[in-house]
Amino acid sequence: MSIFSLFRARTKRNELSPHIERGFRGEGVTYRLNGRTIEIDFTWCNGDRLYTETIDKWDDGHKLSDEEKQRVFLDVLKYLSRPLRRTIVVINTDDSSLDMWNRLSADNAKLVKAVEFTSIDEQKQFERQMYLDILNSKSSLVINDVQIHNESELDDLLTQTRKI
């Protein structure tokens, strides 16, 4: 066996293994495998939280197959695991992969601290409340270059932007 054979074997093995890293300030996770990349939402605020709804498309726009979703989820969950710090899995109830995320979380309970559920409507209400809190603490608010002065204007703008 030559030195080149060792290098080729090592390179091939690395292509089969994912490269995973956390984003800026430890938020977000970048997952790379076979020349493809996916950015996954993750935060450590109020506990490590992995958002499964973002495990959906590669950076080139191709959707992940169910097998790819499972592999990415398990690889990232193992990467994030620490002996005294497990991950909270956040599942969107509007996600078509809801049952798979539930099953994978249950099957890997030793790596999962808890499962939390969210929905698109819940996220919209959270966003509205956040803007409303800012508006109430100030005299106005600017969203997408639009000056907002009251709750009615906020609701009108959110309705317009959500129709797109």
Topology:
Blueprint: H1 3-16, E1 19-22, E2 29-33, E3 36-40, E4 42-43, E5 49-51, H2 66-80, E6 87-92, H3 98-107, E7 112-118, H4 120-137, E8 141-143, E9 146-148, H5 151-162
Parallel strand pairs: 5-6, 6-7
Antiparallel strand pairs: 1-2, 2-3, 4-5, 8-9
Helix pairs in contact: 4-5
Return Rg in Å. 20 Å
Fraction of residues in helix: 40-55%
Strand order of the largest sheet: 4-5-6-7
* Distance between the ends: 60 Å
Number of strands: 9
* Element order: H for helix, E for strand: HEEEEEHEHEHEEH
Number of helices: 5
Largest sheet: 4 strands, mixed
Q: Which runs of at least 5 residues are low in confidence (pLDDT < 50)?
A: 9-13
> What oligomeric state best describes the polypeptide chains here?
single chain
Which term fits the overall shape? elongated
The average pLDDT is 87
Q: What percent of residues are in strands?
A: 15-25%
Structural class: alpha/beta
Care to describe what's here?
- The protein is an alpha/beta fold.
- Helices cover 42% and strands 23% of the residues.
- A hairpin with a 5-residue loop joins β4 and β5.
- The protein starts with a helix and ends with a helix.
Brief sketch in words of this structure:
With 164 residues, the protein is an alpha/beta fold. 42% of the residues lie in helices and 23% in strands. The chain has helices spanning 3-16, 66-80, 98-107, 120-137, 151-162; strands at residues 19-22, 29-33, 36-40, 42-43, 49-51, 87-92, 112-118, 141-143, 146-148.
